[in-house]
Amino acid sequence: xxxxxxxxxxxxxxxxxxxxxxxxxxxxxxxxxxxxxxxxxxxxxxxxxxxxxxxxxxxxxxxxxxxxxxxxxxxxxxxxxxxxxxxxxxxxxxxxxxxxxxxxxxxxxxxxxxxxxxxxxxxxxxxxxxxxxxxxxxxxxxxxxxxxxxxxxxxxxxxxxxxxxxxxxxxx
Length: 172
Fold this sequence. Notes:
Keywords: Signal. By secondary structure, the protein is mainly α.
């Protein structure tokens, strides 16, 4: 057997071996994304239900903005519980960065989570007893809509389930 035939035989054998190993690896399904802890679904549902209470108090006749302070405090507590259960990332306090959570795929998750916290504090600061001005209900409803949008974005980017029936909405 001449050198050209040896090379042709060896080359064709290598092509077959490479094809046998690369093709199955390329067509293999990627591993499934990690799922959030089981407690997340229940906490998200509680959060949604509490936000429905806030909306009801602001859209009632007459609106009762001061009555939303307690449920908004519960919203903050539930956001803390979501962080404690590793459903939402915990913001960094030092230079080390945010505490990573396996099922959260992007930095956008942290950004959206912080947006939810900021929006909640924004609404709460206008209704807490001793607030510097009388609460402007249309402005509060606009802030609450922004909070709900941030929450919806956070649920998506953080890999969390939607509550049954979806997130509440602010009536137009």
